[in-house]
Amino acid sequence: MKSAQIPPKLPILLRSIKKSLWIYLVLIPPFTLLMIFTLIPIAKSFLLSFQNWSFHSITWTGLENFFRLVNDPVFFKALQNTFIYTIVVVPVGIAIALALAELIRPQPPAVQTFFKSAFYLPAVVAAVVLVLVWRWIFNANNFGLLNYLLSLFNQGSVLWLQDSKHALASLIAMSLVGGQGGSVVFILAAMGGIPVHLYESARLDGSTRIKEFWFITLPLITPTLLYLSVMGTIGSFQLFTSIYLLTNGGPNYATTTSVFYIYKTGFQDFEFGYASIQAVVLFLIIMGFSALLFRTLSEDFEY
Amino acid sequence: MSKVQTGNFSNSRRKAILYKYSQARASSKTVFAYLLLTIWGLLSLMPMYWMITISFMNVVTLLRMPPKLIPDPFTAMNYIRLLSGSLLLRWEFNSAVIAVTNTLISLFVSSFYGYIFAKKEFPGKKFLFWILICTLMVPFHVVAIPIFLMFRDFHMVNTYWGLIIPGIFSAYGVFLMRQVIKTLPTELVEAAKMDGCSELQIYARIILPLSKPGLAVLGIFTFVGNWNDFFWPLILLNDSKIYTLPVGLPTLQSQWTDYGLLMAGATLAALPTIVIFILFQRYFLQGITVGAIKG
Question: What's the pTM value of the predicted model, to 2 decimals?
Fold first, then answer.
């Protein structure tokens, strides 16, 4: 027994590779698809950034797109709009979801399910559908719902979407109304995982609801809130549908977001090269946030 | 478990007692909570309410302010005009073909590869899984241009294929099914192997039946996601015969917006996902958290 040598690692590895050969064969098609639809397009986006595409000719232009980008006020305006939108919608949205979840938490299960469903329902309806209804609500004429409500208070009509002072704020308000369903369900699931005896002992010590929320609930659901804020940020960076259907990026670029500008440059002006360098910048920003996601949640990430 | 438990009460029993206690102490607060929740709930559902109401109004009443909460006179005219004078049914059909096809493909592909990543051990597995997770993070908008150019070269613009092929292998779906299948006992797989089952038999006879709840979650999310998808169809399709609903709907408005017609179309577009949600509500509410990275 003593003389039994530790078997060399390489043959074992080879044997297990041979044993799972069928797995590798089976994995070829899906990873080919991943290559074709993710890895190669990313590489190609980088390449396109150095090219000038017109319909039938491709020319290498070096850093021309890059210099155009850093001198393009619309690009920075789009980034700025995207940031403003994200910085308002993500925290305020999570705060609303948190308040709703805290209000739902003490209710009996049937009531919980009822409100969870009511809040989640808008999430299954196509964004296009909801945005078209909001177009009626925001209508600038006096037959828009919001302007009618204003007229009840003797206020004049507001150009919700056509005035560069209000347009972005209107879009932000639109996303906040009815956009919390998923977050509420997430937060309630996290709250349900908190052991009841923590609340019990706090209750015995004479705590209040507010104190329990602040010292028990909030610290214990922080990972969930972090997850929601990073995912929300990544989602907000890709805002497109409401811009495309309601404002078309205007007035005066007040609501042009990064993805909308990419769409406009690429698929309306057909400047694929210039659109690609914007996509690459957006990609790098989103990757940064994703790295953050992995870092903050790495303890919870189980393989 | 029993070590943690200090009293004789089960967790749910304690919750009930705690709940009663707080009820007695704060019934006025409960009323207040219900009030706030109801107000916000009504606000969230308001757009859908108006959508349905307006779709049954005639041109005259829908322009009148204040808007009537219930259509009077009640008319189905918008629906009749819509179905006879537009391609809406065609779009509904296109959307259904795409959503159903992608859902069926995703159910099989994701559960099969989910099984491999959940229960099989092979060198390089962690690395391959890591690549999978990384691709989850790539926003589609970033890769849309190269994929569009590629599809244009392969003449897949304005085809169903262009909407189906990118969704065949969904990293999200594989990840979700892996999370579900991982919770199944490995002994079952080993026992089946002892009895001489092939890998395919294990997958079809043991893994698939046991992961039904996970498949339900994946199925409804894939269906709803595909049904509602906007950006990619908008880029790929420019022939109105092949439009999906979200792409077709906004084209319904003519010079001056005909809200009655538009809302009738919106209602028909929203109906399938709303029905699915009501039927499978339980899966939706449980499933949202399954797909989270932290699982």
Answer: 0.84
> What domain count does chain B have?
1
Written as six digits, the tokens of A281 are 């910048």
Question: Is residue B110 assigned to a domain?
Answer: yes
What's the CATH number where B119 sits?
Answer: 1.10.3720.10
Instruction: Please count the other Cβ atoms lying within 10 Å of the Cβ belonging to residue A214.
Output: 12
- Please name the residue ranges forming H helices in A1-63: 9-19, 21-34, 40-48
Report CA dihedral (B155, B156, B161, B164) to the nearest 10 degrees.
150
What is the C-alpha to C-alpha distance for residues A200 and B117, in angstroms, rounded to an integer? 41
Closest C-alpha to A187, from A258, A105, A261: A105
Interface of A with B in 49-88 (CB under 8 A): none
The token duo for A65 is: 């797109």
Percent of chain B's residues with pLDDT above 90: 23
Give the dihedral sign, CA A107/A111/A114/A115.
Answer: negative
Output the six-digit token pair for A61: 């232009």
Q: Please name the residue of chain B whose CA is at the shortest distance from the CA of residue A118.
A: B41
Contact B14 A129 (CB under 8 A): no
User: A73-300: what fold?
Assistant: MetI-like fold (1.10.3720)
A249 and chain B in contact, CB less than 8 A? no
Percent of residues in chain B assigned helix, strand, coil, to nearest 5:
75, 0, 25
Q: Where does CATH 1.10.3720.10 sit in chain A?
A: 73-300
Write the DSSP assignment of A166-192 as a string of letters: THHHHHHHHHHTT--HHHHHHHHHHHH
For residue A303, the model assigns a pLDDT of 33
- Of the residues A27, A133, A242, the best mutation for testing chain B's interface (the one with the most B CB atoms within 10 Å of its CB) is A133
From the CA of A77, how many Å to the nearest CA of chain B? 19
- Residues B188, B269 contacting (CB under 8 angstroms): no
pLDDT in tens, B27-58: 777 888 889 999 999 998 999 998 998 888 88
Q: Interface pTM (ipTM) of the complex?
A: 0.83
